[in-house]
# Entry
Amino acid sequence: MADDIEECLPGLIEYVIRRSGGESALRFYGHIVAQAKDKLDSVTVRRAVIYETQGGNLVSQLCLTQDYGNQFAEKCLAQVFVTLEEAIAWFESGRLKSELVRQLAGPKPEFIK
# Structure
């Protein structure tokens, strides 16, 4: 099967979001809309990101990373959504979700051509 070829618009980045549990990775051009992370303990970090794709979809990603120095483990979940409300609702209530909402509540930049 051939890869889908799509031209990337200026200012966007190609992302490949790997997902745990045998789910296929998500590949898209886009940008980060909001992101937050918190440290659970000395080796564990949680990271939440919402991306907007070139096509206007939203991707919510939650990763749990454990770094023991000589060993590194990461588990990531990600899902594609049509609306920002759905993308935010996918995250569980807590510090990460609150930070994402705080970032998204601010004034939106005006797009100029």
